[in-house]
Amino acid sequence: MDLRDRIVVITGAAHGIGAALARRFAAEGARALVLGDLDEDALGRVADDLGAGAAEVVTRRCDVAREDDVADLVAAAEAIGPVDLVCSNAGIGIAGGVEVPDDDWRRIIDINVMAHVYAARAALPAMIERGEGYLLNTASAAGLLTQIGSAPYAVTKHAAVALAEWMAVTHGDQGIRVSVLCPQAVRTNMTAGSEGGGVAGVDGMMEPEEVADAVVAGLAEESFLILPHPEVAEYVRRKATDHDRWLAGMRRLQARYTQPL
């Protein structure tokens, strides 16, 4: 996909990867950016940063756990014209294992999984009708591997990858392209206060702008997997080749990051 003259929706656009995507897409010549986030003040600052550029910028308060909010965001974009790209980007992390309370499990499922369902549900009908459209879901390398210290994050990011795979298979012959973004540690609010990004930063902490560069390159190639940290591809190959060996290696990694100081 060439981003020039495209109409793009981005959720979680007030900070981190979402804000970096908005800035980079504007620089690439997008026609319109429709940005959603719960943090309206920060979202306004992102819009101000984009200035009086060529792109039309629309902002909306959007709680991605609410289907009506996501649908309204997509409708705001459709009021401008056919939506070319929906970046379902918002996400959260919750530490812990199976003991995490049900309410927290439901919250992270709503934000990390159902938000992607809502975005697709809102955008797909018009895209399918005209025979083209692009969905970009932000997941994580945890969705291909796992997340040491967080069962809810690992489970929901796996689900996000699975949903993207299903949509690529089911709608690919209808002109719908799908990519899933799977970075490791990125310098965002989610990693704030974590030394070097914790275990996810084993291959280094990446800046959101670097992730945006990888996204633009991935969209240009229409790659399903967008891996800003290239090491992840090798880890996935190792996992597929010998799952038991990979699990043993992950246990060693866990011991390295959870041993007492």
From TrEMBL:
Keywords: Oxidoreductase. The keyword Transmembrane helix does not apply. It comes from the Bacteria. Pfam families: adh_short. InterPro entries: NAD(P)-bd_dom_sf, Sc_DH/Rdtase_CS, SDR_fam. GO terms for molecular function: oxidoreductase activity. Belongs to the short-chain dehydrogenases/reductases (SDR) family. This is SDR family NAD(P)-dependent oxidoreductase. It comes from Actinomarinicola tropica. The lineage of its organism: Bacteria, Bacillati, Actinomycetota, Acidimicrobiia, Acidimicrobiales.
